[in-house]
Structures are given as structure tokens and as C-alpha cells.
């Protein structure tokens, strides 16, 4: 697994601020996918997809409080 890092500017962080930061992407071509976003304000958003198909999504504000993300149109209902 070799990950990639891509810097970004002007994206909305979990706290609502528009800031820059880094996207990290790593996968093993067998189903494991790690996507982490680190914002310059200190917020963080993670999405981990595992080999068994389970997905963990979390967003944490720069003050340490977790954020509940809204669901998209394919949320399973």
C-alpha cells in the first residue's frame, strides 16, 4: 500500500470554515480504502472502507467535538 497526499485550498471543514488542508488516500486493491482529510483549522474527516464491505465515516471539529454528517441520496433507505 502506497498512499498519496494531495493538498487542497478553500474547502469547507466540519466546523463550517472554508480552509485548506490535505487529502490522504491509501488502498490495497483488495477492498481496503482509507480516505482522510486534515484541514488547516484542525478539523478532520475520515472514511475507511474495509475488506468486509463495512464503512466507517467520522468528522471531528478542531475543538474535538464529533460532527454528524448529513446523509446523501444513497444512504440505504
Characterize the structure shown:
The protein contains no helices and six strands. The protein is mostly beta strands and 77 residues long. The chain has one domain. The chain has a six-stranded antiparallel β-sheet with strand order 1-2-3-4-5-6, with no helix packed on it. It is flat.
Write a concise keyword list for the protein shown above:
77 residues, mainly beta, 6-stranded antiparallel sheet, 6 strands, flat, disordered C terminus
Task: Produce the secondary structure layout.
Blueprint lengths: L3 E9 L5 E10 L5 E7 L4 E6 L5 E6 L5 E2 L10
Antiparallel strand pairs: 1-2, 2-3, 3-4, 4-5, 5-6
Largest sheet, in brief, is: 6 strands, antiparallel
Q: Count the helices. How many?
A: 0
Beta-strand proportion: over 45%
- DSSP strand count: 6
What is this entry, summarized?
With 77 residues, the protein is mostly beta strands. Helices cover 0% and strands 52% of the residues.
